[in-house]
Automatic annotation (TrEMBL):
Name of the protein this chain belongs to: Probable 2-(5''-triphosphoribosyl)-3'-dephosphocoenzyme-A synthase
A Pfam family assignment: CitG
Catalyzed reaction equations: 3'-dephospho-CoA + ATP = 2'-(5''-triphospho-alpha-D-ribosyl)-3'-dephospho-CoA + adenine
First-tier enzyme category under EC: transferase
Organism: Caballeronia grimmiae
Xref: InterPro entries: CitG (IPR002736), TriPribosyl-deP-CoA_syn (IPR017555)
């Protein structure tokens, strides 16, 4: 079953004309594009486990595909539920069910907990306001939803990212969402556009977008494993790659490989940055669809 799902992941998805199905397919496509992108420092990709021993590309693809029904349900909730409070609580319940589905599919391994939160909010927002799919508009609406209290959510989850937020006084995934995903809208997407405009390959442009996030994000995945010293090394290393011209240049690639080796040595993986890159790829896809529609 796992191999069958991985083979599905290697083929292009065929989104349904129905809006919720189509948007959920775009989310899964973004998750698979993110994990396939290589070489990513410290992260699972198609060529490496990164700093992980319990994850690989196949398992991440299995997880992404297993989550597709949850993203469909969230998008449908965005379309059907008028009350913002009811919507927030409904997608919270779907997200918790989706997390259980993920853990069942992966044998208990956390592959996409942060992505369920971030991309769940964004797909809900995109489904709710299909007339304005500009990244800043979708992210702002997602932030509005995230700021509503879910009365049924557990007060404490015990997750490592949550503990890192407490220990290091950072916002984490929740803070990023409630602020309207600033690292997606104001960091990743502008870097993606800059890299493309100067002629970088799509792979290099996406790597540069990831590095731009890593250079400034207080990534709780890194903090939880390596504390502030590892976070500083990651941020400095990512900025060094960008300062050398990014992943498209020889010097940039050399520093990228060095950063990858160092993060693996430290046993840290910027999973928060990876989730935000997937969010950026999703919003980029929506923006492309909106542009195509306006030109037809």
């Amino acid at each position: 079953m796992r191999d069958e799902l991985a083979l599905r992941a290697a083929r292009p998805l065929r989104p349904s004309p129905e809006r919720a199905d189509r948007l959920a397919a775009y989310v899964v496509e973004a998750l698979i594009d993110e994990v396939t992108l290589a070489p990513k420092p410290g992260l699972v990709d198609i060529r490496s486990r990164g700093a992980h021993h319990d994850l690989d590309w196949t398992l991440m693809c299995v997880s992404a595909l297993a989550l597709q029904p949850a993203f469909v349900e969230m998008a449908r909730a965005g379309i059907d539920i008028g009350s913002m409070l009811a919507l927030r609580e409904r997608i919270g319940a779907i997200g918790r069910d989706g997390e259980a589905r993920m853990l069942d599919a992966t044998g208990g391994v956390n592959t996409h907990r942060g992505a369920i939160w971030a991309l769940g909010l964004l797909v809900t927002a995109a489904a709710r306001e299909p007339s304005n799919l500009a990244p800043d508009a979708v992210a702002a609406l997602a932030g509005s939803i995230a700021r509503i209290e879910d009365r049924h959510a557990p007060i404490r989850t015990g997750n490592k990212g949550e503990q890192a937020c407490i220990d290091y006084d950072v916002g984490g995934a929740r803070g990023q969402a409630q602020a309207g995903f600033p690292h997606v809208v104001h960091v990743a997407l502008p870097e993606l556009a800059r890299s493309r405009s100067r002629g970088d390959s799509e792979t290099s442009a996406r790597l540069n977008a990831l590095l731009a996030i890593m250079a400034s994000l207080d990534d709780t995945c890194v903090l939880a494993r390596g504390k502030r010293t590892a976070l500083a090394e990651m941020q400095d290393g990512a900025q060094r790659v960008l300062d050398e011209g990014g992943a498209a240049t020889l010097a940039g690639r050399r520093h990228l490989r060095a950063l990858d080796r160092r993060l693996v040595e430290l046993h840290v993986s910027p999973g928060g940055a990876a989730d935000l890159l997937a969010a950026a790829l999703f919003l980029d896809r929506l923006q492309g669809e909106a542009t195509e529609s306006s030109n037809t």
